Amino acid sequence: MLDVYDQQVVLDFGAGPMQYAIAVAQHDRAYVIAADLDFRLDCVDVAKRNRVVPLRANGQSLPLPDKSIDRILMSSLLHMVPEPLKLLRECKRVLKQDGHVVFSVPNHYQFIPKLMKSFVGPAFCRLFRLPRTHEELVCHLNKRFHVGGPQGYYSIDDLNSLLKSSGFDIVEHEYAPGWFGSLLWELSILGHIRFGNIAFHLLFLTYPLARFCDIFIKSSIGSEHIVKALPIYD
Question: pLDDT tens digit string along 36-47?
Fold first, then answer.
């Protein structure tokens, strides 16, 4: 979806350790700017060696000129900021008229609510020391994963409304991973609450199987939205 050409300017927004920024710079031979509130010094050294420019900046007030960026990449950022509408409007400001933004954001849980409402739900919650209701669980997970926005998970209708308000149209959308990968992800979240990070590491070993299933089984649900959006101009 990013669809980068040689010599284009790409902004990796909320870049963290900058692994995606480095991958884009290496694979697509683009000029890549990695923006975040702060970076680890060792990550900065690696990024600079790979032609990535680290930029310490607030996402709602970027020190970049209007219409200076060809592509914007945001991986799991939209739900982490207090004012996502301002973030998207800043994206539109710096994006060139023929540019676009690609981002991922969590979808609503698909399997956990069904499990909690089933006849085994109460026993399962006691066994894994989970909150008793889905709403309490979502609040608990938002705190644990440091979600800073008004909501930690978006439906496709939520995203359409938010993007329209900020001057964007969704032109491509898919879910990742698919049905089986999302089931494993939600199981790992429940395991994380009870057992810590070991649950993530153990379930990650099943990734090849999940990837195989998701390639051959077309899914209309998933744990994350992957979205390509174009700016709207009058």
Answer: 999 988 889 999
